[in-house]
């Protein structure tokens, strides 16, 4: 279970086999006309000047053919992150109570966007707004620990940069075995978090529930490792999308997927730092 934003996508998912040409199945394949680009019956052929201009023209780039590029992903991701940070800052200072609105709205729009076949810039932008409310509100809650929010921001940026470096240099390869381990680990972590949440909400356990002391620190560190692995898989999905020449509109999907992982990573780092502060103060 890698990032569902990418794994549920028809274009970012694993390559699919295509059917063989008709002639390979026993049918009759019609040979292409090598001169069809210069004109067909009833049409005037291109002149020497036109052919010369075509020959001298530069090769088409991915941007010219409306295919996905890394620049597309960077621009969309940067824009959404900037919007999220502005909303988070406003929520933190003016209306931290909007954390619940952001949590519910982000959850609903996250599921909607994750399972849409075609990206909706409006819905993805709205998701960033709700996530900004959630991030601002949850940061306000944890702000009682001096400097923790700034530390979590620096930690998230550092983890993202380190993950990108490891991926670009090939230090860690995203293989099917890597992805399977991540899937099983995320399922196990999700079940643990759900049980822990129920125990906290029902007052069976106080504070962070089972995530206290050394166990809480170990679980938090494990979650951050899962976040790093998730970023690796996200980068791999984007790389394959660019190499396979998928439509440029899916830059919105790529940006959305990265935002999902980064927000989760930030909240995990924030929680880990809070547990460390509590544990060290005992």
Describe the overall structure.
With 282 residues, this protein is mainly alpha-helical. The protein has one domain. 66% of the residues lie in helices and 0% in strands. Helix 3 crosses helix 9, helix 4 runs antiparallel to helix 5 and helix 5 packs parallel to helix 9. The longest helix is centred in the C-terminal third of the chain and has 31 residues. Keywords: Membrane, Transmembrane, Transmembrane helix. It comes from Myceligenerans xiligouense. This is Putative YccA/Bax inhibitor family protein.
SSE map:
Elements: H1 4-7, H2 48-56, H3 70-94, H4 99-114, H5 121-142, H6 148-168, H7 176-201, H8 213-243, H9 251-281
Helix pairs in contact: 3-5, 3-9, 4-5, 5-9, 6-8, 6-9, 7-8, 8-9
Count of strand segments: 0
Overall average residue pLDDT? 82
Largest sheet: none
Structural class: mainly alpha
| Helix residue percentage | 55-70%
Count of helix runs: 9
Strand content: under 5%
Spell out the helices and strands N to C. Answer: HHHHHHHHH
Radius of gyration over alpha carbons?
A: 24 Å
Low-confidence stretches: 15-43
**First-residue to last-residue Cα separation:** 37 Å
Label the overall shape. globular
Count of all domains: 1
């Amino acid at each position: 279970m890698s990032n569902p934003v990418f794994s549920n996508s028809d274009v970012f998912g694993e390559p699919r086999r295509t059917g063989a040409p008709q002639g390979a199945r026993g049918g009759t394949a019609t040979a292409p006309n090598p001169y069809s680009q210069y004109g067909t019956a009833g049409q005037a052929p291109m002149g020497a000047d036109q052919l010369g201009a075509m020959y001298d023209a530069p090769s088409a780039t991915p941007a010219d053919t409306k295919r996905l590029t890394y620049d597309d992903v960077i621009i969309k991701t940067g824009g959404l992150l900037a919007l999220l940070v502005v909303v988070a800052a406003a929520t933190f200072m003016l209306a931290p109570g909007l954390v619940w609105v952001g949590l519910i709205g982000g959850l609903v729009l996250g599921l909607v966007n994750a399972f849409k076949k075609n990206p909706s810039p409006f819905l993805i932008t709205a998701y960033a707004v709700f996530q900004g409310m959630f991030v601002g509100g949850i940061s306000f809650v944890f702000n009682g620990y001096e400097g923790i929010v700034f530390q979590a921001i620096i930690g998230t940026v550092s983890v993202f940069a380190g993950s990108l470096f490891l991926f670009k240099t090939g230090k860690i390869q995203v293989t099917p075995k890597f992805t399977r381990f991540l899937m099983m680990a995320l399922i196990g972590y999700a079940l643990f978090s759900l049980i822990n949440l129920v125990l906290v909400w029902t007052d069976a356990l106080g504070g962070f529930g089972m995530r206290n002391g050394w166990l809480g620190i170990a679980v938090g560190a494990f979650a951050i490792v899962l976040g790093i692995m998730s970023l690796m898989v996200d980068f791999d999905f984007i790389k394959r999308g660019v190499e396979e020449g998928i439509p440029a509109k899916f830059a919105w999907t790529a940006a959305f997927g990265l935002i999902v992982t980064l927000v989760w990573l930030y909240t995990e780092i924030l929680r880990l730092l809070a547990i460390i502060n509590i544990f060290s103060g005992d």
